[in-house]
Specification:
CATH topology: Rossmann fold
Strand content: 15-25%
Radius of gyration: 18 Å
Helix content: 40-55%
Structural class: alpha/beta
Bound molecules: S-adenosylmethionine
Shape: globular
Distance between the termini: 32 Å
Number of strands: 7
CATH architecture: 3-Layer(aba) Sandwich
CATH superfamily: Vaccinia Virus protein VP39
Largest sheet: 7 strands, mixed
Length: 270
């Protein structure tokens, strides 16, 4: 089994892969884009004037969205990739939100942020990259204030098991050190003293990958070759990979799960 490390993930997002993902999904780099983000915010009850932390913030689009569309007061973003941190800083300045968003380059498992200050911790489709998810969940709970909310989506294992060869290909291709199921997130959050509000399959994973496959196959071939210059065979490989992920989604082997939990006002401290 190929071992994927955080250096592999950082290199991917610092380099060409990060640019291809943005071509595929847009600025909100997760399955379901704005629709998924707004659902998560509404179901989690993200309040006007609240202060959040985005663990694995990418280029900062979710943080800008939460401020611009949900009137959140301020956000702190943490991301491993220097390039993503730079994109966050530039795009946030361009959006005129420099006084409301701060971005930190580092590992989401060790943010160095103070205990219990965030009204909510947020993340979208990124914890799949983190090797030690138990530590990450504990860090999310630690920085959330008592009574605050932890709201995220992530790529998760489905109801049907991946074959060994599928697991090997998927994890090596996407730089996943491992995936959790919704139940593993439930257990970790309960172990850290949280109350679960909901853990549900979002239900649009396969459809989204049908879309990404068809966009690259029918429309964006040339744009892909501007990022990975000159080799149409590479484009064919990429569309094949998108079909592979789409088919895993259709088979119920991989999906996107929405998780919303609350840190109780009194009780366990992680
Ligand atoms: C698919 S992108 C999602 C970005 C953002 N959440 C969004 O939805 O637009 C995943 C991001 O997670 C970041 N990442 C992966 N592992 C990380 C870690 N251990 N600590 C902080 N960031 C990490 C990557 O650098 C990348 O920017």
């Amino acid at each position: 089994m190929t071992m994927v490390t955080s250096d592999d993930v950082r290199n991917a997002y610092d380099g060409a892969e990060g640019r291809v993902y943005e071509l595929m999904m847009g600025e909100l780099l997760h399955v379901g884009g704005l629709k998924s983000s707004l659902e998560l915010a509404d179901l989690a009850g993200i309040a006007e004037g609240s202060r959040g932390v985005d663990l694995c913030c990418g280029n900062g689009a979710s943080m800008r969205m939460l401020i611009q569309l949900k009137n959140v007061a301020s956000m702190i973003g943490v991301d491993l990739s220097e390039k993503q941190v730079e994109r966050t800083a530039i795009r946030t300045e361009q959006a005129g939100l420099g006084d409301r968003i701060r971005v930190v380059c580092g590992d989401a498992c060790e943010t160095g942020l103070p205990d219990g200050e965030a009204d909510f911790v947020w993340s979208e489709d990124a914890w799949c990259y983190v090797p030690d998810k138990t530590k990450l969940v504990a860090e999310a709970v630690r920085i959330t204030r008592p009574g605050g909310t932890i709201a995220f989506t992530d790529w998760t294992l489905g109801d049907r098991p991946l074959a060994d060869a599928e697991r090997e290909s998927l994890f090596a291709m996407l730089k996943f050190p491992g995936l959790w199921s919704g139940d593993e997130y439930r257990k970790a959050l309960l172990d850290d003293g949280c109350e679960i509000v909901e853990i549900n399959d979002v239900g649009r994973f396969a459809r989204s990958f049908e879309l990404y496959h068809d966009m690259f196959d029918l429309q964006f071939g040339w744009d892909v070759l501007q990022i990975f210059p000159g080799d149409p065979a590479l484009l064919e490989m990429l569309t094949g990979q998108l079909a592979f992920v789409r088919d895993l989604g259709r088979a119920g082997k991989v999906g996107q799960t929405r998780v919303i939990a609350r840190r109780p006002v009194v009780g366990h401290t992680p």
